[in-house]
Amino acid sequence: MDVVKLFSSTLRPRLGAAKATAALFLIALTAGCAAGGSTDTAAGNSDVAVGGERFSTADEQTAKFGAPVEAGVFPRTVTHANGETTLDKKPERVVVLDTGELDAVVSLGITPVGIPSTEGANSIPSYLADAVKDAKSVGTIQELNVEAIAALKPDLIIGSQLRADKLYPQLSQIAPTVFSIRPGFPWKENFLLAGSALGEETKAIEVLNSYQDKASALGKDVKGDPKISLLRFMPEKIRLYGNASLIGVILNDAGFSRPANQDIDDLAKEISGENLAEADSDWIFYTSYGTPEATGEKAALEGPIWDKLEAVKAGNVQRVNDDVWFLGLGPTGASIVLDELRSYLVK
């Protein structure tokens, strides 16, 4: 089967599409605070953050980007969120500016020379740490070090408007720079854009098709129709994650149902510790962005509400790796999430 046709037939619909259509879609840092959905850096672009006027169309717009040449052919001109960038040859020294771009290039078999750190429990997503052990730091996701990037003499920089829109003029003077609109729910479109910049379009499509095969198989193997709740503790906030998130897309791709308060075309809904009962469902998967003590996770699980939740009483609750489930933002992380969901849900 033609791999391009296979992938194009499974692209996910727009966020505002009807639920019946959404149930059929089979292929598509979280932002700010490394997965929060808003930009907390002066270098970013609030229009593409959660609540911004360009948030909900990021997937549709990113799908239009790329290079109109055959896979692997250079030179090529890549259309992206900040215009056009010409690459004379296949990049060899790549700097990435976020965890989504990191997952993307590693998934394509490329080791970046420069990577940022996060403010999560691990400065580098643990599942990618071995693959990038020799990469140099270029600052944090929130505070990129332009001088450190320049010192690495990259021949490609991959980032996003959400993180570094105002830095684009400086970065593009250092090396050819390709920006997506935002990380998060458009992770598939972002991955294809990275593949286009690297001349690895064919491999990118193959990776996404493999991911979707795994998601579809999981959905078929799970008995019944369990509703899945996604709970994340963060400093000074608690979130229930919706459809416009990495994990929300993964659950939809596998055909899983969501509680009504999370079946929303948004990144997340915020709740208070007093309203923790709103996280209840058939299954609860939870984690923290930071230590359990700092995020309030420890206090919530030891409080009066947690043990009364139906999922907790049934034993259908699982703490997961924040690095993967909420910071992965690419196909390698997504594939691990599917493996973990299978281990919990398929008996």
UniProtKB/TrEMBL annotation:
Keyword Hydrolase assigned: no
Protein name: Iron-siderophore ABC transporter substrate-binding protein
UniProt keyword annotations, A-Z: Signal, Transport
Source organism: Paeniglutamicibacter terrestris
Highest rank taxon of the organism: Bacteria
Keyword Signal: yes
Classification of source organism: Bacteria, Bacillati, Actinomycetota, Actinomycetes, Micrococcales
Coiled-coil intervals, chain numbering: none
Family note: Belongs to the bacterial solute-binding protein 8 family.
Database matches in Gene3D superfamilies: Nitrogenase molybdenum iron protein domain
PANTHER family: IRON III DICITRATE-BINDING PERIPLASMIC PROTEIN, IRON(III) DICITRATE-BINDING PERIPLASMIC PROTEIN
Domain Fe/B12 periplasmic-binding, chain residue ranges per copy: 93-347
Signal peptide interval: 1-35
Any Pfam family hit: Peripla_BP_2
Compartments it resides in: Cell envelope
